[in-house]
């Protein structure tokens, strides 16, 4: 069974992910992760996280997904994204980034198939 990597540290503009590396924003899933480049899908703070942003998490067998809103709650999530996750029967948590990391790390430490999108600034 693949385990979701732990977020070792988060601060403004900086994340340290166990076995994945350091950077600003990340996509994480059971067995790995990578930096999250918003330009790949044209993501902006508004309207926010799009269905295309979570597809890689779904492809990597996440049963639970944590979506961060940024440190100042500036990042939104498109309703279409929430609808997609609901249709796929994926449990979703949307929270401020520090809270999102806490939720994610707790679920990962309990061996859950959790993935997440993390934005470490605004």
Class based on secondary structure composition and strand pairing: alpha/beta
Number of strands: 8
**According to CATH, what is the topology?**
Hypothetical Protein Mth938, Chain: A
List unreliable stretches of 5+ residues.
none
**Total number of distinct structural domains:** 1
Largest sheet, spatial ordering of strands? 5-4-8-6-7
| Helix-strand pattern | EEEEEHEHEHE
Query: Cα distance, first to last residue?
Result: 34 Å
CATH homologous group name: MTH938-like
The helical percent reads: 25-40%
Q: From the 3D coordinates, which CATH architecture would you assign?
A: 3-Layer(aba) Sandwich
Radius of gyration: 13 Å
Say what oligomer this is.
Answer: single chain
Q: Proportion of β residues?
A: 25-35%
Helix count equals 3
Q: Overall mean pLDDT score?
A: 97
Q: Which helices and strands, and how do they pair?
A:
Elements: E1 7-11, E2 14-17, E3 21-23, E4 25-29, E5 32-35, H1 51-59, E6 64-68, H2 79-87, E7 91-95, H3 97-109, E8 114-119
Parallel strand pairs: 6-7, 6-8
Antiparallel strand pairs: 1-2, 2-3, 4-5, 4-8
Q: What do you see in this structure?
A:
This protein is of the alpha/beta class. The chain has a single domain (7-119), classed as Hypothetical Protein Mth938, Chain: A (3-Layer(aba) Sandwich). Helix content is 25%, strand content 30%. Strand 4 (25-29) and strand 5 form a beta hairpin.
């Amino acid at each position: 069974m693949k385990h979701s990597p732990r977020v070792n540290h988060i601060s403004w503009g900086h994340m340290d992910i166990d076995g994945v590396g350091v950077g600003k924003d990340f996509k994480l899933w059971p067995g790995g992760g990578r930096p999250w480049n918003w330009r790949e899908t044209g993501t902006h703070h508004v309207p926010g996280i799009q269905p295309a942003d979570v597809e890689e998490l779904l492809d990597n067998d996440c049963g639970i997904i944590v979506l961060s809103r940024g440190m100042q709650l500036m990042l939104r999530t498109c309703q279409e994204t929430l609808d997609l996750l609901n249709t796929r029967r994926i449990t979703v948590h949307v929270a401020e980034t520090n809270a999102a990391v806490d939720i994610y790390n707790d679920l990962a430490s309990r061996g859950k198939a959790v993935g997440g999108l993390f934005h470490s600034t605004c």
